[in-house]
Design goal:
By secondary structure, the chain is mostly helical. The protein contains 11 helices and 3 strands. The protein has a single domain, classed as Up-down Bundle (Rhopdopsin 7-helix transmembrane proteins), CATH 1.20.1070.10. Belongs to the G-protein coupled receptor 1 family.
């Protein structure tokens, strides 16, 4: 009977129906601390990004292309942290660390969808700064509301294609054990290591699609800012140069953090063992980035601060 079971197991190698997520720390005594820290981070991130969105909606001065994209970015940041952190908090509360196979792939799909849109929106924001600084006379026509909506729609379409491609590709792999993921959410590198079948094609697909879907936007961002830098340096007034660079500095900071953590996470797939550093990068991707974005974009922006203050005092209503 035991041999029959083993032969059936060997014939049907998709035996795994759930994975075990070890989480950030494996020491039970630290789980309450992790829970409190990440609950606080989640509330701050959601509150900060929704506040930015509210300020953009109620303040007429912020009804510009740059803030239209920033509002979309805030929605994405709320989505990105919601895909990973609440489920991790639920597992910490219940002490149940399993995640069904289908839920794992669903989380993978939505994470890559939202991060992909984020990537393309950062490119659209760079293009917006390029038009505003390098071609101000044609800016209003070349960055009309129709163009803005098309850029956002194309960003979602490309990101959806990318996320679906990776999810379908990972669904073709066989998982027959072990099923322990040393992470706090499901992602490609960790699932590749658990597969019984060859992941060579999947890794090639990740590199190829990643090069196109992330490399092309990065090249466009660098090209846009090269033109912006050249235009700003031609400004004679030091105050004018400072103002122009300040509008781009926050965006470049976000781009640097976003691409730096992404490259570290996905360009090391050949390493034999994924370490705890990957958990740190995961925290950066899913928690730190979304939490920092509203701070980076609003701290030195008096228009956003004024709009937030108006909302808090009740002088402006979202209705």
């Amino acid at each position: 009977l035991q041999e029959l079971k083993q032969s059936k197991f060997g014939a049907n190698r998709t035996a795994i129906t759930e994975f075990i997520l070890l989480g950030l720390v494996e020491t039970p005594e630290l789980w309450p601390v992790v829970f409190i820290v990440f609950l606080f981070a989640y509330l701050v991130t959601v509150g900060g990004n929704l506040s930015i969105l509210a300020a953009i909606l109620v303040e007429p001065k912020l009804h510009t292309p740059m803030y239209f994209f920033l509002g979309n970015l805030s929605v994405l940041d709320v989505g990105c942290i919601t895909v990973t952190v609440p489920s991790m908090l639920a597992r910490l509360l219940s002490h149940k660390h399993t995640i069904p196979y289908g839920a794992c792939l669903t989380q993978l799909f939505f994470f890559h969808l939202l991060v992909g849109v984020d990537c393309f929106l950062l490119t659209a924001m760079a293009y917006d700064r390029f038009l505003a600084i390098c071609q101000p006379l044609t800016y209003s026509t070349r960055m009309s509301q129709t163009v803005q909506r098309i850029l956002v729609a194309v960003s979602w379409a490309l990101a959806f294609t990318n996320a679906l491609t990776h999810t379908v590709a990972i669904a073709t792999l066989k998982f027959c054990g072990p099923n322990v993921i040393n992470h706090f959410y499901c992602d490609l590198p960790q699932l590749f290591q658990l597969s019984c079948s060859s992941t060579q094609l999947n890794e090639l697909l990740l590199f190829a699609v990643g090069f196109i879907m992330a490399g092309t936007p990065l090249a466009l961002i660098i090209t846009s800012y090269a033109h912006v830098a050249a235009a700003v340096l031609r400004i004679r007034s030091a105050e004018g140069r400072k103002k122009a660079f300040s509008t781009c500095g926050s965006h470049l900071t976000v781009v640097g953090i976003f691409y730096g953590s992404g490259i570290f996470n996905y360009m090391r797939l050949g390493s034999a063992k994924l370490s705890n550093k990957d958990k740190g990068v995961g925290v950066f991707n899913t928690v730190i980035n979304p939490m920092l974005n509203p701070i980076i974009y609003s701290l030195r922006n008096p228009d956003v601060q004024d709009a937030l203050w108006q909302v808090l005092k009740g002088k402006r209503s979202l209705a």
